[in-house]
Amino acid sequence: MKKPLTFKLPKGQCWTIGVPYFWLLLFFALPFAIVLKISLSTAAISIPPYESLFNYADESLQILLNLGNYLLIFDDSLYLYAYLGSLKMAFITTLGCLLIGYPMAYAIARAPKEKQTLLILLVMLPSWTSFLIRVYAWMGILSNNGVINNILLWSGVISEPIQMLNTNFAVYIGIIYSYLPFMILPLYATLSQLDGSLLEAASDLGSRSLNTFWKITLPLSKGGVIAGSMLVFIPVVGEFVIPELLGGPDSLMIGKVLWQEFFNNRDWPVASALAIVMLGLLIIPITLFHRYQSRSMEKEV
């Protein structure tokens, strides 16, 4: 008599595999399913402000899926501009964080070991202050009566205040300042692990500093560049607080539109559809990053 085929994992492996899957199910799959369900419903003046997808009457169950919320997104140019504005803002701020963060991370990684902890602490210290307080501080700095305009007026560089607050320039400054540590930390982790013998060998062979950087340092730090860019780009796409406080009418981002649809218009189905489409846009860079990590791990093995 043949024994039934059974597949049983050791107890330790069950916990190792099961806990991450349970975590993803609880904090990603379940909220995503709820938002997806709302995006397919019809708005209503009720609590909650949408109709149920399921209707049971006369011993029959009907499932009512409203795809009009998604069609509205592609018909209304406002939403398209909001998506493009968010992607443009995220791309420019990610590039700004990379241009500023890479030299800082490189300098920290090349500093003496006893000073690296202090330098990393200086990068992280502003993050310990409330996020809102730091944004409000930038409102004071960039306003017409702020520090920058007062210095320029006092030095005679300008004769009247420059409008910086409530512009895209202020939003870029605020986002780059707020997300810069997320770029520096993964870059520092990668650059501090570079094999110094490679740089020494290149120097002994007559390679100049700039050539060594392009041929050795930058390729070997590609993982940190990608990780830091992902940590900045993804949250900036849905950023709401900084554009709301520092931006003006031209600072149209999808996070701001989501807030208006949820809390001002009370149109939860359209807002949920906007969130689903935004998540779909973010899956592309996340998938590319995952593939890069998988290939890097295969090469290391």
- Tell me the radius of gyration: 25 Å
* Counted beta strands: 2
Largest β sheet strand count, sense and barrel closure: 2 strands, antiparallel
Level-2 CATH architecture of the domain at 84-185 and 222-277 = Orthogonal Bundle
- CATH C-level of the domain at 84-185 and 222-277: Mainly Alpha
The N- and C-terminal alpha carbons lie at a distance of 43 Å
Order of helices and strands: HEEHHHHHHHHHHHH
| The CATH topology of the domain at 84-185 and 222-277 | MetI-like fold
What share of residues are in beta strands?
Answer: under 5%
Q: Give the overall form.
A: flat
Identify the CATH homologous superfamily of the domain at 84-185 and 222-277: MetI-like
* Regions with little confidence, pLDDT below 50 for 5+ residues: none
Work out the helicity level. over 70%
Given helix and strand content, the structural type is mainly alpha
Number of helices: 13
Q: What is the mean pLDDT? A: 87
Strand order of the largest sheet: 1-2
Keywords: Cell membrane, Membrane, Transmembrane, Transmembrane helix, Transport
Domain ABC transmembrane type-1: 83-289
InterPro entries: MetI-like, MetI-like_sf
GO biological process, one term: transmembrane transport
